[in-house]
Amino acid sequence: MGDVDPAFIQPPEFRPKVQNNMEIDDEIPVIDLSTDPKQLVLEVGHACQKWGFFQVINHGAPSELKARIEKAAKEFFDQPIEEKQKVKRDEVHPMGYHDQEHTKNVRDWKEVFDFWLQDPTFLPASPEPDDKELRRLTNQWPEYPLGFRELCEDYAREVEKLAYKLLELISLSLGLSADRLQGYFKEQTTFLRFNYYPPCPYPELALGVGPHKDGGALTVLAQDDVGGLQIRRKSDGEWIPVKPIPDAYIINIGDATQVWSNDKYESPEHRVVVNTEKERFSIPFFFFPAHHAMLKPFDEIVNEQNPARYREFNWGKFVVARNRSDYKKQNVENIQIRHFRVVD
Ligand SMILES: O=C(O)CCC(=O)C(=O)O
Ligand SMILES: [Fe+2]
Fold first, then answer.
1. Fe2OG dioxygenase domain: which residues (predicted)?
2. Range(s) of the domain holding residue 76
3. Dist. CA 97–CA 86, nearest whole Å
4. What is the pTM of this model?
5. Which protein residues are within 6 Å of ligand 1, measured from CB?
6. Which residue, judged by its Cα, is nearest atom 1 of ligand 1?
7. Is residue 187 part of a domain?
8. What are the pLDDT tens digits along the chain (344 aa)?
9. CATH no. for residue 180?
10. 61, 80, 246, 302 - which has most CB atoms within 10 Å?
11. Which among 59, 63, 8, 45 is positioned nearest to 210, based on CA atoms?
């Protein structure tokens, strides 16, 4: 990734102001999960409403496992491209290695390795509403580093516990019962990703990940100490960096929660800036509902004063329609939740 490849060049309005990249800002809430439960629900609710982002500490997931998985991720990406290509993603295997990720049709300055939490995972065969066929999707695992699969699976199960804990807190913070959202995840379509951002010779033109919103209920992200993740502040549109905190996880709301909450919690826009010196790793856990889940604002939340802003849609069809553009670069915009918005 040495020369200036036009595929990576962001349109001028998306280019980052490099001089401000690493400025630290403490505004994004840091929530201690060992706090008194009532207080915790209030803090989570406040953070979800204001930012859609927060960091958690004292979360219960073992830090030793996170350290091991970060080391293994580095070992995997340090291999020659031919080794990584042995597990490359294709139309049959949407999980695996990939270095051609695009966000809004501009190439991201990164490589990824993806795996399903549940193996196999089931998704609709096509986005067509009448097509009832399902695809059975399985993971691909590299031969090296040794024990990679077991480590990834152990890590995923630990983060899953944390994701359920957060789901409960979010549910309570919306005035719903603690287990109100759980049923949507029995046959979840969750996947985990290793993001590897190599140093970039033109960080003022390219992005590690272009501006986007995550699709699912929530994302649980581990990042290393380099920094680069930025959130667009709702009040003024400024890009605010997320400070790396050792052993914390970064949590953000996704589109599904935006719909469930009838826009009380908005799925926040975020991006990743790169730098000329340091490589960076991050590991998001995208907590996605089951393919058969039907999503709409909760009846407990909508009323005459606050009518439903979305019509019901199927999660599986939504995800498949979104992913289709990963393979065929499309000129039309990806499907978004606002396409299900009820016009006022
Ligand atoms: O690398 C990061 O910090 C965030 C990556 C991200 O937003 C994503 O993979 O969806
Ligand atoms: Fe993201």
1. 188-289
2. 6-340
3. 8
4. 0.94
5. 193, 195, 209, 214, 221, 223, 229, 270, 272, 282, 284
6. 282
7. yes
8. 456 888 999 988 888 886 554 555 558 999 999 999 999 999 999 999 999 999 999 999 999 999 999 999 999 999 999 999 999 999 889 999 999 988 888 999 999 999 999 999 999 999 999 999 999 999 999 999 999 999 999 999 999 999 999 999 999 999 999 999 999 999 999 999 999 999 999 999 999 999 999 999 999 999 999 999 999 998 889 999 999 999 999 999 999 999 999 999 999 999 999 999 999 999 999 999 999 999 999 999 999 999 999 999 999 999 999 887 554 555 566 788 899 999 66
9. 2.60.120.330
10. 61
11. 8
CB-CB contact of 263 with 65 (8 Å): no
Number of domains in the chain: 1
Residue 45 CB-half CA count within 13 A:
13
CA of 213 to the centre of ligand 2 (A): 6
d(CA 304, ligand 2 centre) in Å: 34
In a domain, 248, yes or no: yes
For residue 135, the cross-strand partners are 123
Best mutation site among 272, 278, 280, 281 for ligand 1 pocket (most ligand atoms within 8 Å of CB): 272
* ipTM of the prediction: 0.99
d(CA 91, CA 324): 10
Distance 209 CA to ligand 2 centre (A): 8
Alpha carbon of 36 to ligand 1 centroid (Å) = 30
